[in-house]
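Worked example

This section walks through a single chain of length 254. The input is the sequence exactly as stored; nothing has been trimmed or padded.
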Amino acid sequence: FFFNKIFINKFSNNLKNFSIIFLTILMISYYNISNSKNFLFNKNEDLSRKENIEITNFIIQNQNYFKKEYEILSFNYDLSLWLILNDYKNFSILNNSFWTSKTNNIIENEILSVFKFLNLNYEDFNSHFENKKKGYRYYNLNTTSYFGRRYLSNQIKTFGNLDDYDVKYKKIITSTSPLISHQVIIPKKEFDRFKIKFNNSDKNITDPDIIILEKNNEIFDKYSVNLDVYCVAIKNDNLEILLKKDLNEVCIFN
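Given that input, the structure is written out below as C-alpha cells.
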C-alpha cells in the first residue's frame, strides 16, 4: 500500500505494472525461502530432540548404572538441564554460568581441569574460546555459556582497558553501539593469563563416573580418555555416553 500510494502511482502504466509484478514475485519468493529455512531448522531440531529422548530413556531404563550420586561430566546443554531437573547434582562442570553461584575463578579452574582430564592442550582451549564473528557481532557460545556477559564489549563496556585488546578488536568495539549487549570479545591479555594458568594448573578432578560428549562439539574429535577405565554405553549421531567399566554392565564397546 505504501509503495503504491507514494511511488507506484507516479509511474507510467508500463512501469507501474512491472513494479507490481516485481514486488509480488519478491514477496512470494521471500515467503517460500523463509518457510524452507524454517522447515529445515525444525527438521534438525526434531532430530536432535529425538536423539535426546533416546538417551534420556536409556538413562531411565538403566538407573542402576546412572545413580544420582555419580559424578557426571557433560558437554551437552539440553541433557545437562534434563539431569538437573531430575535431581542429578554431582557435576564436574556446569554448561551455563547462570546455573551456579560459583566464582569466575572456580569456573576457570574447573574448565582447565576438565580439558586436562580429556588430554587436551592449551591450543584446544584457545580454539574453544576464541573470538568468533557471528552475524553482525563477535559471539562465541562457548564463552557466554561458561562466563556469561563477563567479556561483553561495546562502546561503554569492556573487560579491563581497551588497550588490552588487539588493534582489530579496538576498532570494532569503539564502533559498536551500547545497544548491542551480546557482543563478547576476550582481550589478548586474558588469553595470555589463561595460557599461564593452563600451563601451571593440574588435573584436579577425580575421574567422573559418567561422561557425556556432544559429537558436533570440536572437543569430541580431539579428546582421549583411558579406555581401560571407560567404555561406551550408548551413542547416536549426536551424543555419546561413556561409563566406568567397574560401575556398569551395559557397555556396547568394551
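What to look for: The first strand starts at residue 72 and ends at 74.
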